[in-house]
Amino acid sequence: MIGEKNEDAYSLMIEKYSPIIKKQADMFIKKYPNLNMDKDELIQEGILGLINAIDSFTERRNCIFYTYAVLLIKREMLKHIKKCSCSKNLVLTLSKSISESVYENELFLEDTIYSKKDLVEEVVLSNYYERLLNNFKYELSIKESPIYELRINNFSNKEISILLDLPYKSVDNNWRSIKKKLLDYIQQTS
């Protein structure tokens, strides 16, 4: 099915990977809230990334299709985000008054400003944990890797079993193994 230029195959793969694309779009919207991006646009870009993955994937790449597809989905979404953030009038479209209400509960922008020290500490900690989790991916087997990626993106075991065409029990057992490996890995690196 992968590599074939078949409309039914594209439709089936888009349907199968749509939860992943939607989760990635949500993740980028949360990660870049100041860009005011449209979720539907990100989803469209993700679908284009998936189509590119379907067209260009070969077994010789020495990876599973899921990993390759997620990489291309993220890449297309990031290209779109970069394009949106580089527009000429971005500063004007994104600017808000510091005393303008940000949320419905009357939280003002000036109430959310961090001190430089707090911000630096938060960035250092978040970068440390992000690197730790990214490096941990390389400790996993080929079967565990996509399960781990989906779980850290808030997919349930049931959703993962459907997406990866694995029995639920297999996904559950692999997730337990991954958690044990992660605890060991954290203890080793600390």
Task: Write out key terms for the chains shown.
190 residues, Arc Repressor Mutant, subunit A
Structure description:
The protein is mostly helical and 190 residues long. The protein has two domains: 1-90, Rna Polymerase Sigma Factor, Chain: A (Orthogonal Bundle); 111-190, Winged helix-like DNA-binding domain superfamily/Winged helix DNA-binding domain (Arc Repressor Mutant, subunit A, Orthogonal Bundle), CATH 1.10.10.10. It has helices at 7-31, 39-56, 65-85, 90-94, 116-136, 144-152, 157-163, 168-189. Helix 1 crosses helix 3 (65-85). The chain is globular, with a radius of gyration of 20 Å. The chain starts with 6 loop residues before the first helix and ends with a helix.
Characterize the main sheet.
none
Strand portion, in percent?
under 5%
CATH C-level of the largest domain: Mainly Alpha
Q: What is the string of SSEs from the N terminus onward? A: HHHHHHHH
Using only CA atoms, what is the Rg?
A: 20 Å
Distance between the termini: 44 Å
Mean pLDDT: 77
CATH fold field value of the largest domain: Rna Polymerase Sigma Factor, Chain: A
By DSSP (H or I, 4+ residues per run), the number of helices equals 8
